[in-house]
Design goal:
With 328 residues, the chain is an alpha/beta fold. It folds into two domains: 5-125, 3-Layer(aba) Sandwich (Rossmann fold), CATH 3.40.50.2300; 151-326, Hypothetical protein af1432. It has helices spanning 13-25, 36-45, 62-70, 89-98, 110-150, 157-171, 176-180, 183-188, 198-201, 209-216, 218-226, 235-241, 262-276, 288-297, 305-316, 319-326; strands spanning 5-9, 29-33, 50-54, 80-85, 102-106. A five-stranded parallel beta sheet has the order 2-1-3-4-5, sandwiched between helices. Helix 12 crosses helix 13. The protein is elongated and about 80 Å long. The relative contact order is 0.08. The model has no long low-confidence stretch (mean pLDDT 91). It binds fe (ii) ion (FE2) (2 copies). Residues 161, 189-190, 271 line the site of one fe (ii) ion (FE2).
């Protein structure tokens, strides 16, 4: 990525300028400071994407500077590279023990410098993406759980359906990235239930035609809620079609067979399996074996036979039992 901001800290002016020139030439924006104290002052105004710092400097040396940077939550993830002279090998050890990402030995070539900087920046972007993904997942799960609570689902439905669905997908020998694409759709499958009135949701007597229609709208409502969020584009078909049936008797679009998105066919099995094995106000909990047999029995009618085969593989591997035990 072009134009990332790097902070070079060194008391040797010639070296500082040399590094700055090399890095500017590569398209980076470069800030320079002659010691840790001055660098910290600059960082109050601009937070760099990466820091390269000498160790021995007047006023505030590299180690103290590093500790000061790491003590601030907003700076804790900035990659930090120490610069050390060849005679200072023990410095390398100290730096690494403190947790610096890398060190470079002076004098260094342009190639060495640029390679290290690019590698550290790439790694840092990767970590940021992973953290972002985890943050999304945690917030979506919290939201989905809050909605499920209205429906008096027992705790863990969202997590179990997600784990079951991803396990079944993995048993279809999908590559990891494709399995991963099921995650958010599984988490959010029932998000549209937020539109169902409490009087309908908590009704103890049988539902009227109108109330039943209201419940059956939750896949459409859910898909509508997330359709404009690019990050959730893979979730939309799962949310919309998780109640379709292989024989075409499901809802909302009465799709049949392979017309139903495969991811939704997988979540349908995961969702039904969890519903059967969970205590509900309107139906008693079945034991796992019983629910397993029921899924097999409905293969080719309610469920995609291919998905049921993968479900069977997952069952035989013991993974479904493990998931159930984790989220009891
Ligand atoms: Fe649903
Ligand atoms: Fe569900």
């Amino acid at each position: 990525m072009a134009n990332e901001t790097l902070l070079v800290v060194d008391d040797n002016e010639a070296l500082r300028e040399g590094l700055s020139e090399m890095l500017s030439f590569e398209g980076f924006t470069v800030l320079t400071s002659e010691n840790g104290l001055e660098a910290l002052r600059k960082m109050q105004i601009v937070s760099p994407d990466l820091i390269i710092s000498d160790i021995t400097m007047p006023q505030m040396d590299g180690y103290s500077f590093f500790s000061a940077v790491r003590s601030r939550p907003e700076w804790v993830t900035i990659p930090f590279i120490f610069l050390t002279a060849r005679a200072e090998r023990e410095d390398v050890l100290t730096g690494k023990n403190m947790g610096a990402e890398d060190y470079l030995v002076k004098p260094l070539s342009r190639e060495e410098l640029v390679t290290a900087v690019r590698a550290r920046l790439a790694r840092s972007r990767q970590l940021e993406m992973a953290q972002l993904q985890q943050a999304y997942e945690a917030s979506l799960t919290a939201l989905a759980n809050a909605i499920d609570l209205r429906d008096r689902y027992t705790r863990g439905h969202v997590e179990r359906v997600t784990s079951y669905a991803m396990t079944i997908a993995a048993c279809m020998e999908w590559p990891e990235w494709r399995v991963e694409q099921i995650r958010f759709g599984a988490i959010l499958h029932d998000i549209g239930k937020i539109h169902i009135r409490e009087t309908t949701l908590f009704k103890e007597t049988s539902l009227t035609e109108e109330e039943w229609e209201e419940i059956k709208r939750h896949p459409i409502n859910g898909a509508e809620m997330i359709k404009d969020i690019p990050y959730l584009s893979h979730a939309v078909p799962i949310v919309r079609h998780h109640h379709e049936r292989w024989d075409g008797n499901g809802y909302p679009d009465r799709l049949a067979g392979e017309k139903i998105p495969l991811e939704a066919r997988i979540v349908a099995v995961a969702d039904a399996f969890d519903a059967m094995t969970t205590e509900r106000p309107y139906s008693p909990r079945r034991d796992l074996e019983d629910a397993y047999e029921e899924v097999l029995k409905c293969s080719g009618k309610q469920y995609d036979p291919g998905v049921v085969t993968a479900f069977q593989t997952a069952w035989e591997s013991g993974q479904l039992h493990k998931i159930k035990a984790t989220w009891k």
